[in-house]
């Protein structure tokens, strides 16, 4: 019997009101993540990836559908209920820009200890856990006294990951966690994320870069115009993509395509995506 999902999104719709009418950011999105599973959510800018992530952590209110986190249906949670859930550290969010997500006036130690102290944990216990998680993300203790502005981009990103993990959450949402890093730090961050799968934490890896996610995720869900058009084991999605949009992403990923990628073929796929058949059906 498969384990109960720690995150379940069912028939989720999100609409934004605009002067020109309603913008349909998500349409009927369903996604489940098991404990210890890493699921990549892939799509271009505007596909609905960040809207999905923000809905899961209560930053966007769904128009329809259900969201369940660790057995609790959070779809209709009010602000106070979300604050209580976040305080328990069950679900955490790693933002794209680590510099903007860390308080510039707090040291690394203070930033990592803050969520534990909010939970009411003794300071000594908080400090011990901070040091343990700093080691898990492969950072030296000498960085504990530094401010975010005194760290490199790769170090800041690992600090934000440690901060998300220090409460031992059930689910971590990573929104484009390596897009702001150079190639060397991107590889280190991906290696770190791979090592976290054994801890039992469910990871949802949001990205526009299929190449980055392919080696980390157990499963990949492809978002196109607010809909999931393909969802399956990572190897199957990469090697035998069924939908035209997925084939386009695979062909566009520098780490996945061959040096002799056929540009004309990719142009034909883009043309196919403009048709209703290409949008609605697998090809």
Automatic annotation (TrEMBL):
<keyword id="KW-0813">Transport</keyword>
<keyword id="KW-0067">ATP-binding</keyword>
<dbReference type="Pfam" id="PF00005">
    <property type="entry name" value="ABC_tran"/>
</dbReference>
<feature type="domain" description="ABC transporter">
    <location>
        <begin position="9"/>
        <end position="250"/>
    </location>
</feature>
<comment type="similarity">
    <text>Belongs to the ABC transporter superfamily.</text>
</comment>
<dbReference type="InterPro" id="IPR017871">
    <property type="entry name" value="ABC_transporter-like_CS"/>
</dbReference>
<dbReference type="InterPro" id="IPR027417">
    <property type="entry name" value="P-loop_NTPase"/>
</dbReference>
<dbReference type="InterPro" id="IPR050319">
    <property type="entry name" value="ABC_transp_ATP-bind"/>
</dbReference>
<dbReference type="InterPro" id="IPR003593">
    <property type="entry name" value="AAA+_ATPase"/>
</dbReference>
<keyword id="KW-0547">Nucleotide-binding</keyword>
<protein>
    <recommendedName>
        <fullName>ABC transporter domain-containing protein</fullName>
    </recommendedName>
</protein>
<dbReference type="InterPro" id="IPR003439">
    <property type="entry name" value="ABC_transporter-like_ATP-bd"/>
</dbReference>
